[in-house]
Amino acid sequence: DKISEGLQNKESFVIYPEGTRTLDGSIGIFKGGGFILALKMGVPILPVAIAGSFELLKKGTWLINPGKVKVKIGKPIYFPKKEQISASFYNDAIKQVRAVIVDMYSELKNN
Q1: Which one of 27, 42, 51, 80 is at 20 to 30 Å from 34 when CA atoms are compared?
Q2: For the whole model, what pTM was predicted?
Q3: pLDDT value at residue 4
C-alpha cells in the first residue's frame, strides 16, 4: 500500500495514536493501527507531545480561541522489525511509547 511504499522510500507520516481528541484534553487510550504498521515495517517511532491545543479548539466546536501551544519532540524509539507481532510485544510497544509521551506532556504542562 501507499504508506508501506513511502516508508520504504524513507518518507515520514504522522499518526495520532488516540484517533480523536478527548473530551477533557487528557491523553486518551492509544489505538493500534499505526503501531502495527511501524512494528511490521521496522521504522522508528518519534514521540511528540502537544500541550495547549485542547484549550484552543475544544472538541465539538469550530471556534478557535487564542492561546499558546507547546510541542516537545522526543528521541526516536526503535523496535525490531517483525512480520508476526505477538500481543505482548504489541502491548509493550504501545505502553512504552505512551509512557514517553505522557512524561513529555507532563513536562510541558508543568513548565
Answers
A1: 51
A2: 0.83
A3: 61
